[in-house]
Amino acid sequence: MAYTVSATDERGISFQPESVVEEVLQNVWFILNTLEYDCPLARGLGLSPEFIDRPIETAQALSVADVFDKIERFEPRAEVLEVNFESSHADGRIYATAEVNIDGDYDSEEYTG
Predict the structure, then answer these.
(1) pTM across the whole model
(2) How far is CA 11 from CA 19, 29, 48, 92, in A?
């Protein structure tokens, strides 16, 4: 089943997710909202800051491959199907949105965290 995760989603971090699907989607959301070097014990986690201060179209082009790579590396249970961006020309920001498929059959009743 495909799920859409946007960097603009308002969500908190759940330390006890209800299911594996919720955990994977939370991890994808975290990757989309984190820049490399921001996590002290996982400096590679997050998107590359290479696109900062670039024109919006250039930043989007540079970021697509990075989103695919980082989700594949840090959350292998999610398969990225598509990456889109929401952009604001007024403040020069872009927000990634990833459509992901969760690999495997996960049943929330069997999940023990």
Answers:
(1) 0.86
(2) 16, 9, 22, 23
Cα–Cα distances (Å) from 60 to 57, 92, 104, in that order, read: 5, 12, 30
Residues 6 or more apart in contact with residue 91 via CB below 8 angstroms: none
The per-residue pLDDT for range 60-88, each reduced to its tens digit, is 998 999 999 999 999 999 999 999 999 87
CA 16 to chain centroid, in Å, comes to: 19
For the CA atoms of 105, 109, 111, 113, what is the dihedral angle to 10 degrees? 150
- Using CA atoms, how far apart are residues 44 and 89, in angstroms rounded to an integer? 28
Distance CA 18, CA 108 (A): 7
| CATH number of this structure's domain 2-102, picked from the four choices 1.10.150.110, 3.20.20.70, 3.60.15.10, 3.10.450.40 | 3.10.450.40
Could you give the count of Cα atoms lying within 13 Å of 34 in the half-sphere of its Cβ? 19
